[in-house]
Amino acid sequence: MPGPGAGLASFMARETAEVPAAAARLCAGGGAAARIAAQLAGRSFPLVVVCGRGSSGHAGVHLRYLIETRLGLPVSASAPSVVTGYARTPRVAGALFVVVSQSGRSPDLVAATRAARAGGALTLAIVNDAASPVAAAADLVLPLEAGPERAVAATKTVVTSLVAGAALVAAWAGDRALADGLALLPDRLARALALDWSAWCADLAQAPAAFVTGRGHGLGTVREIALKVAETLRLPALGYSAAELRHGPRASVSAATPVLALRQADPLAEGVDALVRDLRRDGIRVHACGGPAGTLPWLADGHPACDPIAMLLPAYRAIEAEARRRGLDPDAPAGLTKVTETL
C-alpha cells in the first residue's frame, strides 16, 4: 500500500491524510471543550443521553465509555424516532443531552435535540458545522472545525468527533492521564497513517461477510470500521463486542468470514486476547491489532482510550485502497449521499 502522501486518488484518502492536523487543534487542550467542561463541572446530572446515527453514533459509543468510566454517570442512547415517529417528548429534566452530527442537518437529530431541550435537558451539539440546524437547536456547541469533507464515507469528521468527546471528558473529569494521551495523539495519528493493513483487506476479497471485534473503549471503532467495510467495499460486515461475539454471533463465524480484532491495553485486553486464541484454534482467519497476538502493524501501546481512535486510520487507508483495487469509487458508495436526511 502506498505511503500516506502518495497517490491520493480520492477525497476519502485525502481527508484521511488530513486527520492528524485536524485532530491537533482539539488535542491541544483549552478552547471550546475546556469552556464547556467548566460549565458542566458546575452542574449535577442524573444521566447523559447521547444521540447520533451511523458514524456519529459510533463516536457516541466511544463517548459513552469515557463518561461512564471517568465520571460515573449512566449514559443512554437516544432513539430519535420516539420523537419524530411516535411524537413523544422524553422526560429528561436535569439530564445532559449530547447530539453528535457531522453535517448537523439531519431532521431527526434536529427534532430530537429540540425535544430534549423542551423536556428539560441541557443540550450539547458536537458538530462540524457550527452554523447548522443541529447546532442552532442546542444550548452549547462544541465545533469540530475539521474543515470541508467531500467523501460520502466520512473519516476526518469521525475521528475529530471522537477526539472532541475525549477532550471534553478529560477537562470535565480533570483526567490528567487522558489529557496527556490526547496531547500525544496527533503524532500517533500521523504514524498510524503509515501502517499497512492491506493483508486484512486482501482476506476480504472472497469473503461473503466480515466481522470486526473489540471491547470497551474500542467498541465504537469496531462498529465504525464494520460500517466502512459495508458502505465502501459493499461487503456485509458486523461489529461486535468480543464478549457478545462469543454468544449467538459466533455460530456464523467461519473460515470464510475473516475477523479483525482490535485490542487496547486496558483491563479488557485479556478478553480480546482469549477470543483471538480461541478463534484461531478453530481455524478462523483473525487479523489482530495490538497485544501478544497482534499480526497487523501497530504502534507501541498508548493511552487505552486514544489508541482505538488511532486504529481507525490504517483501517480507513486499507479500505479506501481496496475499494479502488476493486474498481469501486470510495467517495460515492452506492445509494448513499453525504447528508442522510432521516425522520
Number of domains: 2
- The helicity comes to 40-55%
Indicate the CATH class of the largest domain.
Alpha Beta
Pairing-aware structural class of the strands and helices? alpha/beta
Query: What is the H/E string?
Result: HHHEHEHEHEHEHHHEHEHEHEHH
Number of strands: 9
User: How would you name the CATH homologous superfamily of the largest domain?
Assistant: Glucose-6-phosphate isomerase like protein, domain 1
Q: Give the strand content.
A: 5-15%
Mean pLDDT: 94
CATH architecture of the largest domain: 3-Layer(aba) Sandwich
Order of neighbouring strands in the sheet with most strands: 2-1-3-4-5
For the report, how would you describe the main beta sheet?
5 strands, parallel
Keywords: Aminotransferase, Repeat, Transferase
Domain SIS: 36-178, 200-343
GO molecular function: transaminase activity
Organism: Methylobacterium crusticola
